[in-house]
Amino acid sequence: MTAPAPIRTERDGDVATLTLDRPERGNALGQEIVDALSEAFDAALATGARMIVLRGSGKHFCTGLDLSDLDTLSDGDLALRILRIELLLQKVHAAPVTTVAIGQGRIFGAGADLFAACDHRVTLPGARFSFPGAAFGLVLGTARLGALVGEARARAILLSGAAVDAEAALALGLATEITGEEELGASIAPKTAAATRLEAITVAALHARTRRADDDGDLAALARSVARPGLVQRVREYRERQIAQRA
Length: 247
Hints:
Oligomer: single chain
Order of helices and strands: EEHEHEEHEEHHEHEHHHH
CATH superfamily: 2-enoyl-CoA Hydratase, Chain A, domain 1
Shape: globular
Radius of gyration: 17 Å
Structural class: alpha/beta
Helix content: 40-55%
Number of helices: 10
Number of strands: 9
């Protein structure tokens, strides 16, 4: 039997909804799901979508990096995987159309960075955010986070590693809205109207001019952080500390 696709795509007029569909893994970002999301994003743009919505199936939006195969990875393998995630984040951030993330449950690590890369960042009640990458020396999406919440707040979030609940995320500017599942339709409708009010070429030009200053700096900082020797060992030690804390 063929395994189901890791990304589910739905189209409703000008709106393409891309759903991360590996709920058994918390929609964690491994190579397969990253490649599939990048391809689905490109396909949505190529077929004229004016708004792209990102969701996660199951309990969680995205729980971060998929490290289920960590013991088989070299430092170079893991570094390449993380760099590919940053390129995906830049694609979403630089999109010539409106992007919307709808997050629930755990929105952690690279999943929180994916959420933060979107224009509208809608969270369901009870969602929790965390950016643990700094604990193993990873610098991913920090400039984009700083642009959303301010440099001082971004540093505090990254240094503490503490989880942020939905209400705090809204107050910080990480989330733009808290909405119940039953109100999502009413939330999305005005966003769709705004996304399609102007000509596509005008929207693309506005996005290119106003939203892209941080991507090059994020890529350079990430490349330096993953190039440090011992990446896999740092991640392994981080996981061991997390397990010990839960014991």
